[in-house]
Amino acid sequence: MELNPVFWLYQLIQFIIDKLLSPNPPPPHAVLSRPRIAVIGAGLTGVSAAAHCVGHGFDVEIFEAGGEGALGGIWAKVNNTSGLQIHSIEYRFFPSVYWARGYPDRQQIVSQISQIWKRYGLKERTKFNTQVKSIYLDSQGRWIINDPSNGRFDGVIPAIGSCGDPKMPHIQGQEKFKGEIYHSSKLDGKTAEGKNVLIVGGGASAVEGLEFVIHTNAKSTSVLARSEKWIIPRNAIVDTLLAFNIFGQETIFSWIPETILRVFFYRDLQDLAPYKTGLFTATPMVNSDIFRQIRDGKASWLRGDIIRMTENGILFNHRQKGVPKNGPGREEEIKGDMVIMATGYHRPSLSFLPDDVFREPYQPPAWYLQAFPPEHVSISAINCTYANAIGTVGSWHIGIYTRLLLVFLVDPLARPQEYWMKKWIDMTRFVKSRSPTAAFDFFTYSELIYWFVFCVAINPFRWKWALFVFFGVGQALPIGVVRGEDKIRNGLGMGTVQKWS
Fold first, then answer.
1. DSSP symbol at 176
2. What digits encode the pLDDT tens for the residues 204-237?
3. What angle do CA 248, 39, 107 make, to 5 degrees?
4. How far from 448 is each of 143, 232, 440, CA to CA, in Å?
5. DSSP helix, strand, coil percent of the chain (3-state; round to 5)
6. Are residues 164 and 345 in contact, defined by beta-carbon separation less than 8 angstroms?
């Protein structure tokens, strides 16, 4: 049993969060109320959002394209050697999650998702092997998923994530390569022991490859990276401080964290730090092992372009720092026995949504709070529209987005109008007009929280919902107020917009 006092403090914190903030699971076979929500995707985000809905008394149906083995989304697909790169305190995707350690592995993450799915009775509310091809409104303004046989819904939560099927590009000459070639997500049952491994790609998927080669004791590892990407330490304090940039973009002070990283993290490997790319322009790679492997002489990080594969490895154009992609460099053959394609995943398509949500200039990710298309406030696309960020996809915001959707559906006075949703998008673009990236192409977690606070604060009719939106508690007061407003609307012949029971 763990005797570390920090461990027990962490367990106590998790226990308190669970008891204070977890919504009560519905009784078995409970008849839940409207609004009824369709959740598309049974990954971490979909299961969390659905559990929040039923925990607050609202009916939900999950549509998952895969079988039950797909429960957990991307975490159901990656290798058993894969684990969380950020600290688990930043990965509390539901209040009742209990982490046994700071950096849990794939099995524990999938286990936590499965436990929530079962605890909140979502098994009977999940349709597996059901690919969503279209959603559309019926004559009464309710959503139909594929066809009327699936029922009608008041709101939709697309939760399909940003990682779909693995990308496996063809490299010229790979048929001649005498060794093994695998995608970074297909390494279970394989071993790199005693082998020289070449990892193609320097992004998040490269972390999968690195975990595998370290776990299976590879002889040497070479990461062949085409793009310059910041690497930040696997440290909860550092990662949290970087996410505190509330501006969500490069500022005149960005040189400070960049310099600190170069001096204290990169140290003797500063040549690997990006030349002109700012820290707050793209999602950084979170990993501390690669530098340790390089310093121990077990790994190398090479910047350049792949020319072709050879019988014994990869012919590589090794570029110096600051030289752009496909620029001049020194050609050399990097020899290896195994190639790991850390080339990422295809992004799942949102094409099943109505065509009007893709009209310029308000197409994803340029939506209200990055999740609500201005034309349809009853859609909340959680964790599947973002491009780059410093923060986490598995945390507090999933519940906030879900509860905002519920508030917008049940309280017409709190519901944003299309005009003002578009004005908020325009305002955000103006505020970030000097950013080197488009306004919604990069954000930080503190900027996201600022968006939520602004959304609630700007409309006095949302103030009564603040505790519910941010913490999932205190809904009795706003429920009573909305019921009173419904009676007034009924008395004036305006009708009740949604049922709340």
1. G
2. 888 889 889 988 999 999 999 998 889 999 999 9
3. 75
4. 28, 21, 11
5. 35, 20, 45
6. yes
> CB of 397 within 8 A of CB of 448?
yes
SS (H, E, C) 218-285: ECEEEEEECCCCCEECCCHHHHHHHHCCCCCCCCCCCHHHHHHHHHHHHHHHHHHCCCCCCHHHCCCE
Structure tokens at 363: 């197409």
486 vs 214, more confident: 214
Cis geometry, peptide bond prior to residue 361 (ω within 30 degrees of 0): yes
Q: Which of 371, 387, 386 is nearest to 421 (CA)?
A: 371
- What stretch of H or E contains 63? strand 58-63
Amino acid at 68: E
Cβ(141)–Cβ(376) under 8 Å?
no
For residue range 382-420, list pLDDT tens digits in order. Answer: 999 999 999 888 899 999 999 999 999 999 999 999 999
Residue that the structure tokens 């990965």 belong to: 91
Question: What are the backbone dihedrals phi and psi of residue 181, each rounded to the nearest 5 degrees, phi first?
Answer: -130, 125
Which residue matches tokens 């490299």? 171
For residue 405, the surrounding DSSP H or E stretch is helix 397-410
Helix (H) or strand (E) run with residue 204 in it: helix 204-215
In sequence order, what are the residues at sequence separation of 6 or more whose Cβ sits closer than 8 angstroms to the Cβ of residue 53?
A: 37, 39, 59, 60, 402, 406
Residue 311 one-letter amino acid: E
The C-alpha torsion from 117 through 119 and 122 to 124, rounded to 10°, is 130
Look-up of token digits 């594929």:
146
- C-alpha distances out from residue 9 to 12, 13, 90, Å: 5, 6, 16
pTM as predicted: 0.94
Strand order in the sheet with 126-127: 126-127, 58-63, 33-40, 155-158
In the numeric block, which tokens belong to residue 72?
A: 């957990």
Is residue 397 left, alpha or beta, with left meaning phi > 0 and alpha meaning psi from -120 to 50?
A: alpha
pLDDT for 41-94, tens place per residue? 999 999 999 999 999 999 999 999 999 999 999 999 999 888 898 999 999 999
91 close to 292: Cβ distance less than 8 angstroms? no
pLDDT at residue number 34: 84
3-state SS, residue 376: coil
Burial class from Cβ neighbours inside 10 Å (0-12, 13-18, 19+) for residue 44 reads buried
Residue 265 CA to residue 280 CA, distance in Å, equals 17
Residue 155: what are its φ and ψ, rounded to 5°?
-145, 160
Helix (H, G, I), strand (E, B) or coil at 144: strand
* Ordered DSSP codes for 294-348: HHTTSEEEEEEEEEEE-SSEEEEEEPPTTPPTT-S-EEEEEE-SEEEE---BPPP
Q: Is the pLDDT of residue 2 over 90?
A: no
